[in-house]
Design brief:
alpha+beta, Cytochrome p450, 2 domains, four-stranded mixed beta sheet, three-stranded antiparallel beta sheet, 11 strands, binds protoporphyrin IX containing FE, membrane, transmembrane helix, oxidoreductase activity, acting on paired donors, with incorporation or reduction of molecular oxygen, heme
Length: about 575
Amino acid sequence: MAMGTDPRCVGIRRGGAGVDLGDHASRITTASRSCRVHFATAVLELLLANLLRGARQARVVSNEVGARAAAAGLAENDSNIHGDAQDELFARAFLALVATVTVLYLTRLLLAPLKRRAAATSPASLPCPRGLPLIGNLHQLGAVPHDSLAALAARHGAPLMLLRLGSVPTLVVSTAGALRAAFQPNDRAMSGRPALTAAARIAYGLQDIVFSHPGGAFWRAARRASLSDLLGAPRVRGVREGEVAALVAAIAGASAAGSPVNLSERLMATSKRILRRVAFGDGGGGEGSIEAGAVLDEMQKLLGAFFVADYMPWLGWVDALRGLRRRLERNFHELDAFYEKVIDDRLKKRAGSKGEDLHGDPAYRSTFNSRNQIKGILTDMFIAGTDTTAATVEWTTTELVRHPDILAKAQQEVRGAVAGGGGDIVLESDLPRLTYLKQVIRESMRVHPPVPLLVPRETIEPCAVYGCEVPAGTRVLVNARAIGQDPFAWGPDAARFVPERHAEVADLSDHKPWHDSFSLVPFGVGRRSCPGMHFANSAVELLLANLLLCFDWRAPRGEVVDLEQETGLTVHRKNPLVLVAERRRVQ
Ligand code: HEM
């Protein structure tokens, strides 16, 4: 066990039968143990003697009172008899309680050597950094949890460590090697998701893809039908190209007078519009889309909020006191009303015709047998698809502006690739030629994975990692950010932004599944990895290619673009990315 680890932490022992609640007694020496046995026996004897004497005295006193009453000619009264019996009963009950507690205590003391011997013969358990009573290691999550966890893992030399977040045992994976060891043999066991409070409500009681039970027919059908077919549909390409062109026009307008533009805000709006148009059809949600925007924003906030019930279920009532439960209910009902309207509108419009969106296509209607399932999937697209795409472009642009040489090289590639085709816009068909841009994006996702702790997992059955048994129901956090900085996987310059390190990747253009490699996992790992990856990569590449083609970018004079991070499931910049954009003139 590493230095500073907590022997009382919910532990996972090699070859053990599951959760070990730790053992104070194992630290008691033989001498002090035998002292304690004697002491406990003496206390028990004393207590028994006193209680028996007390009961006897009570009986004598009550008999005397009875005798005196009889002598006084009074009839023996009922309440005296009753009180006598009560005393007796109380004494017996108390005796039984003391005897039980003492027997338990003595058994524990006597079993301690056996437990110690068992612990001594089993090799080390997973490192378990010391926590506090009740909250466990929660306080160690800090302001930026993925960075705090990476620091904690480094301090304990623990690529795989076991924390207790509140009362929840949590396995944290922090290097590529540990990820391979944990997931390669246990893909199925590691494929559950915890039923977090906000997700369970907003995703219609887990009737969605992100949080539903893995391996079920619904989960499989939903992944296949909704995300590969729907997001891969031919019209999606037109939606992306149209929205990117609109973004370029908006930035050109806003920066015409030389004023800086808030790129973070604009990227988020574009990303949302793309997803809304794909999910709801061309209107992006119709007339109600502005109000819907606020409802969806609130949903994202609630999903990232800290619900005490997710860590200390017995303290869940605190969430109600904080008003979080009420907010969640209000948001759920607003969201539901919005979905109902959208689905009704779409069904009316499409009656009798074959559509390509989720709720209009008869093929989808036969796969999903309730409206709630369709609403759950729509929610997934907003949870999983909007701010992840925006954050990726935001961080990549941040790094480009901080590295003018890399920016120039990427710009040169993009401008060269479209020179023959009119040169004023990059289309999706141009993307396969942009090899260096793909390297830049990979590097950005290595250093700034938009979902640095992925989406939490939970083991659905017991499994073994490094020979240690991990019980079912253990929460699992994969630190994609720490894995991206792992010097064993990326070399001593892992902290530097060097897109060329991906030049050797055999084929950057076919969206080779990144989750096959355990050292670059921005889209997750194994069977539960992101099904929106192809869709997202196309959107990110198209957005960046057009921003580089159409504008020259720099920080406002005298300002430096920082790397401060905001917290949340998806991690954005803390300060919005505000840049000067100079429109490039096409000759
Ligand atoms: C750059 C953009 C994106 C990133 C970085 C990203 C990242 C992730 C990550 C890390 C996970 C969890 C994987 C795991 O547990 O191993 C995930 C799951 C998921 N993502 Fe994405 N994602 C992105 C875009 C999208 C888009 C555009 C969609 C769909 C519109 C989407 C839909 C999903 C869904 C449905 C899941 C849950 C899969 C499951 O649990 O079976 N994602 N994503």
